[in-house]
Amino acid sequence: MAALMQRFGGQTYALMRIMTGFLFLWHGSQKLLGFPLPAPDAPAFIIYIAGSIELIGGVLVMFGLFTRWAAFLCSGLMAAAYFMGHAKQGFFPLINKGELAALYCFVFLFISAHGSGIWSVDGARSKSGG
After folding, report:
1. Inside any domain, residue 99
2. pTM of the full predicted structure?
3. Interatomic CA distance for residues 87 and 95, integer angstroms
4. CA–CA separation, 13 vs 119, rounded Å?
5. Domain residue limits at 105
6. Over 70: is that where the pLDDT of 129 sits?
7. Is 67 domain-assigned?
């Protein structure tokens, strides 16, 4: 089983990157566009700054374009969200409801360190010499 999973490591990483970006972009879409749910009641800087990073960063990570920079910015945003919005409510993420922010933070940090991988615009550009 381990050999089988190792054989598909590139593909599973690409799927994780794509789905992480896809899921993340909807948080920005909600804040900026009110879709698929109405925008949350939050200060303007959270709506416009965080929403823009979530929407644009999610799209960039999903397509694998400027992946390292986009993922690093998204990771930092989620670290800030955790400490600004959740950590004040208790130490444990289960109690302070910060699990998603913490998980996104570290997944994006991993993507930033690992790069775009296969099935990405960055990968296609590097193969074409661009």
Report:
1. yes
2. 0.93
3. 9
4. 10
5. 11-127
6. no
7. yes
